[in-house]
Amino acid sequence: MFMARANAAYYAQAEFGADFVTAPELTQVFGELLGAWAKVVWQMMGSPADIMLVEAGGGRGVMMADALRAWAAPSVHFIESSHRLRAEQAARVPHAQWHDALENLPEGPVILLANEFLDVLPVRQFIRREAGWMERYVQDGAYVELPVAYDLPDDPVGAVREVNEAALDFVRALAARGGIGLFIDYGPMASAPGESVQAIRAGKYADPLEAPGHADLTAHVDFAAITRAAHAQGPVKQNAFLTALGLYQRSDILAQRHPHRADDLKLAVQRLTAPEAMGSLFKVLAVCPETLPTLPGFA
Asked: Which domain covers residue 153, as residue numbers?
């Protein structure tokens, strides 16, 4: 699949953060809040001694390092296929363990954190034509369409539907082992037609077909589809979730301790919460067993 191959090449050689900025890179408070969230959830689980704190798609390891300041989890793991990123993660979290996929994790209870992970997983793209649904592929650097039998809504001609089977498989596998996963990503609350695959290079939009492997390819996450695939709490907007966890209070404490960072902290909070920035576009969803009560941030 084109998107999977392009992103595998990109994360194998690109300098993480050169083309985009993620929430953990904006402020340490983001990771600290998630670490505190994970600790509370662990306690709600009965504080199992063999708990694993896992991050999927951990970037440079910044978020996990920040999270561990709030909770010194006894066992730390990354799901990461890029050897380059593994090296950066090891520099910040040297005692962690690494795995290529979720199924490679050891047996035991899991709390998984995933920020901007689902959006880079490859989507299948379908276009409604007069004759029915066609699937769009990339072949020799250009789009081609082939007829397909797939259960999709009866949309009008010209409509586009995207299905992220890799994301759905991931959350189903996590739910099947009884794990808890916190997913923070961007996309709409409800499933809807529309084309969202995009490429980012040097902070600007680029042609997804141009220079594959040299741009970050992403697609909107269909949160409603995930809630149909596994029991979940949410989604809620990122600004509501982070506010409930104490984003403003923690940022104010840091600003008082480090006055020279006050302006940067204020700007980071604004970017994380403002509706016109990341606050409304990004959603938060927790995949969890039905037996758990309401988790922090989802009341």
From this structure: 124-163
Same domain, 281 and 136: no
- Say if residues 223 and 235 touch (Cβ distance below 8 Å): yes
Is residue 161 within 8 A of residue 152, CB to CB? The reply is yes
Q: How far apart are CA 175 and CA 181, in angstroms?
A: 8
pLDDT at 17: 58
* 203 in the same domain as 252: yes
Give me 226's structure tokens: 């995930």
Taking only the tens place, the pLDDT of each residue in 56-107 is 999 999 999 999 999 999 999 999 999 999 999 999 999 999 999 999 999 9
- The answer to whether residue 83 is domain-embedded is yes
Q: Which amino acid is at 108?
A: G
How deeply is 263 buried, as exposed, middle or buried, from its count of CB atoms within 10 A (0-12, 13-18, 19+)?
A: exposed
Number of domains within the chain: 2
Indicate the helix (H) or strand (E) that contains 33.
helix 28-44
pLDDT (average), residues 257-277: 95
d(CA 203, CA 206): 9
Return the pLDDT at 19. 67
Tokens representing 161 are: 């539907």
Residue 18 has pLDDT above 70, yes or no: no
Q: Indicate if 80 and 143 belong to the same structural domain.
A: no
Question: Rounded distance, CA 114 to CA 54, Å?
Answer: 9
Quote the CA–CA distance of 41 and 282 in Å, as a whole number.
22
